[in-house]
């Protein structure tokens, strides 16, 4: 019987390759543009527990230490090529805490 390939992703905090199901996806929604191609609204950054939202994704372990390491090294900012407000990091900490607890 054919073995299914398990999707692997790299945690932006600890830089370890893990199964996709073991990680939390952080997603930057696509920018909204008008008919001329000019950006009307920047895409927001949010946590995607189901892994189905459209947009650019980065992955983090279910671990607060990984989030701290990613924040300190600005790895999410590099992954999304934009400045990430402190409110988003605070939201991530709350949601990761709720998921663990």
Structure report:
This protein is of the alpha+beta class. It has one domain: 2-Layer Sandwich (Hypothetical Cytosolic Protein, Chain: A), CATH 3.30.1230. 30% of the residues lie in helices and 27% in strands. It is built from 3 helices and 7 strands. The strands form 3 sheets. It has a 3-stranded antiparallel beta sheet with strand order 6-3-7. A hairpin with a 5-residue loop joins strand 4 and strand 5. The model has no long low-confidence stretch (mean pLDDT 87).
The CATH architecture would be 2-Layer Sandwich
Strand order of the largest sheet: 6-3-7
Instruction: Find the count of extended strands (DSSP E, 2+ residues).
Output: 7
Q: Tell me, briefly, the overall form.
A: globular
Note poorly predicted spans: none
Global structural class: alpha+beta
Task: Provide the fold topology.
Blueprint: E1 8-10, E2 17-19, E3 23-28, E4 32-33, E5 39-41, E6 45-48, E7 56-61, H1 64-72, H2 75-80, H3 86-100
Antiparallel strand pairs: 1-2, 3-6, 3-7, 4-5
Please describe the structure with a list of short key phrases separated by commas or semicolons.
Hypothetical Cytosolic Protein, Chain: A, three-stranded antiparallel sheet, two-stranded antiparallel ribbon, globular, 101 residues, 7 strands, 30% helix
Structure at a glance:
The protein has three helices and seven strands, in the order βββββββααα. It has about 100 residues and is α+β, with helices and mostly antiparallel strands. Strand 4 (about 30-35) and strand 5 (about 40) form a beta hairpin.
